[in-house]
TrEMBL record:
Residues 23-277 form the EAL domain. Coiled coil: none annotated. The chain holds residues 585 to 873 of 873 of the full protein. The lineage of its organism: Bacteria, Pseudomonadati, Pseudomonadota, Gammaproteobacteria, Alteromonadales. This is Sensory box/GGDEF/GAF/EAL domain protein.
Length: 289
């Protein structure tokens, strides 16, 4: 038994060692990848299904790895979360989004971009002042063209600190969205405290709302909550016309999802904006409220 215990201990030690080495290697790789400009932002349109307008874009990071191809964010962001390099990458995302706003304006597209912000990023002591500096460097872009998405689960980590940082950033003119809403506690009290103008209903509820009455109830509940608190609400993961119709019936007009557009490279956006038309069934809906 002693022998086994020793072995187990040794094994555990080695596994941990490997994990640390893997993480260290990943961090080095990402540092190099930033230098080599291997990261790109893709953009997913946000639309109003009832009016047919395009209302903005969400920036989603991808790693164009020279050997492994396109690596999605959830394969590298969690590994570097909490490290200095993730903060640098986070700032790169904000700056690149602001660059993109300027570029699109040249071709007549004048719409806000939202970027995802990690918990660690938002909880940096100097997050607000760093953001102010960036916005100062981009004085031609109005701060309300930049939206920051924070996960409901991140906002829950330290609601007091998070809400005060959000308020400070809001004073700069930046707007906030709560992402993946419904995956945390979704409590009334903390929604009251978080100064976010937009609530994004998590795609898992939207995906199953046509078959699962519980998920339909959750979507309906979140829409009602948003209305009660005078927040705007958007559905993520709208994959079909039927999903959009069900959402419109509940009074949710804003949507994002593969049924509207997949995230695209920035060069594809102008042509998409020109050609996109909301589904006729969606355009038939009358305004609720
Ligand atoms: P998210 O912010 O909730 O973004 C939505 C994710 O769902 C994106 O995946 C998007 O491509 C995908 N999606 C959009 N519409 C549909 C749909 O109709 N069906 C399905 N099945 N999926 C859809 P992606 O790009 O892989 O990003 C995953 C997550 O990674 C994001 O979730 C966000 O939390 C995080 N992320 C992405 N970019 C960044 C970034 O620059 N910074 C930080 N901190 N996190 C990021
Ligand atoms: Mg998001
Ligand atoms: Mg989301
Ligand atoms: Mg998500």
């Amino acid at each position: 038994a002693k022998q086994a215990g020793k072995n187990t201990y040794h094994l555990f030690d080695t596994a941990q060692d490997t994990a640390i080495n893997t993480q260290r290697k990943s961090i080095d790789n990402i540092r190099t990848a930033i230098q080599k400009q291997e990261f790109v932002l893709h953009f997913q349109p946000k639309v109003n299904m009832r009016t047919g307008e395009v209302t903005g874009f969400e920036a989603l990071i991808r790693w164009h790895h020279p050997i492994n191809g396109i690596i999605p964010p959830l394969e590298f962001l969690p590994i570097i979360e909490g490290h200095e390099v993730s903060l640098r990458l986070g700032e790169w995302v904000i700056k690149t989004a602001l660059d993109q706003i300027i570029e699109w304006r040249k071709v007549g597209i004048n719409l806000p971009i939202s970027v995802n912000i990690s918990a660690h990023q938002l909880q940096q002591d100097n997050f607000t002042s760093r953001l102010a500096t960036i916005l100062g460097d981009y004085s031609e872009v109005e701060p309300n063209c930049l939206e920051l998405e924070i996960l409901e689960t991140s906002a829950l980590q330290d609601t007091k600190q998070v809400s005060s940082t959000m308020s400070a950033c809001q004073e700069l003119g930046v707007k906030f969205a709560i992402d993946d809403f419904g995956t945390g506690y979704s409590s009334l009290t903390y929604l009251k405290r978080l100064p976010a103008y937009l609530i994004k209903i998590d795609q898992s509820f939207v995906r199953d709302m046509l078959e699962d009455t519980d998920d339909l109830a959750i979507v309906e509940g979140v829409v009602g909550l948003a209305k009660a608190f005078r927040r705007t609400v958007i559905a993520e993961g709208v994959e079909t016309v039927a999903h959009g119709e069900a959402l419109l019936k509940l009074g949710c007009e804003l949507a994002q999802g593969y049924g509207i557009a997949r995230p695209m490279a920035s060069v594809e956006i102008p042509a998409w904006v020109k050609s996109w038309k909301a589904d006729d069934a969606w355009l038939q809906h009358n305004k609720i409220n």
